[in-house]
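Re: [ENG-882] Designed sequences occasionally contain unexpected residues at chain ends

Forwarding the minimal case from QA. Structure tokens:
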């Protein structure tokens, strides 16, 4: 059994559910409960309460990458004394920036707190750059390599490391991959390394398994029309059963996906649930 609850998204349409720019998912895989990202505030806690979800049952916390809208809410996790293991890339907690109008960093977009000030997190974070199996049928991907020449890493993000600010190659973004009934489901925060790169890496890790579900922010709002068309065509060619575009995908890109994928594309948002 695989059930996915959307705790945080940029859109909402249900009473008492809140929205914010960010992403958080509550994933139930058999008897395991996974919190994938935490949005930027305590919104995920509020929505979990409204949806009847007990965050105290969390078995694992997965941080997709080190941006405020995916990890900022971690500091509001309500069960700090019994918090589970937190999985992240070693670079997730570096200082990160984005540019606005000029080709230079102008605003901070990294995780808005220091681990050193959060005693409850110490000893709970597991860092990995490589694919890591965390439970039966549950894996975090580690760094996502480049396979598709049409998918470029965004050029308007920066990272500070060893006292230098350089373009952020988004090495810290990882995906969650869950095996279910002989197939796999994929969960992505923003797909900064490219959603097709991510899908192809999954196929490399699980060469004999079909991809049944993709739930992802895809960062396609400002890409070229040809890149969007090629992305949709690859998704069609991979015959993914259900695609749930969220968060930073962009409304126009969501509409194009819905147009070409039809019922295979689910335009869900905060407060919604999908079950396999």
């Amino acid at each position: 059994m695989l059930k996915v609850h959307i705790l945080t998204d940029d859109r909402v349409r249900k009473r008492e559910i809140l929205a914010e720019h960010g992403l958080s998912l509550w994933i139930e895989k058999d008897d395991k409960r996974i919190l994938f990202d935490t949005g930027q505030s305590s919104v995920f806690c509020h929505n979990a309460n409204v949806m009847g979800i007990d965050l105290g049952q969390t078995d694992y916390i997965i941080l997709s990458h080190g941006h405020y809208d995916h990890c900022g809410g971690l500091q509001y996790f309500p069960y700090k004394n019994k918090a589970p293991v937190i999985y992240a890339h070693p670079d997730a907690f570096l200082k990160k920036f984005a540019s606005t109008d000029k080709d230079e960093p102008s605003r901070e977009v990294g995780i808005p707190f220091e681990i050193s000030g959060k005693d409850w997190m110490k000893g709970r974070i597991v860092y990995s750059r490589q694919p890591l199996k965390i439970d039966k049928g549950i894996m975090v991907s580690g760094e996502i390599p480049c396979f598709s020449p049409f998918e470029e890493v965004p050029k308007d993000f920066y990272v500070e490391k060893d006292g230098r600010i350089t373009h952020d190659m988004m090495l810290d973004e990882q995906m969650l991959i869950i095996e279910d009934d002989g197939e796999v489901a994929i969960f992505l925060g923003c797909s900064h390394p490219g959603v097709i790169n991510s899908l192809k890496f999954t196929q490399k890790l699980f060469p004999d398994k079909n991809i049944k579900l993709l739930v992802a922010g895809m960062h396609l709002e400002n890409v070229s029309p040809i890149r969007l068309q090629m992305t949709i065509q690859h998704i069609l060619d991979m015959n993914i059963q259900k695609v749930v575009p969220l968060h930073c995908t962009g409304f126009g890109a969501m509409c194009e996906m819905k147009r070409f994928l039809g019922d295979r594309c689910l335009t869900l948002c905060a407060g919604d649930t999908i079950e396999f």
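QA comment: On inspection the terminal residues look reasonable. The longest strand covers residues 2-8. Proposing we downgrade this to a documentation issue.
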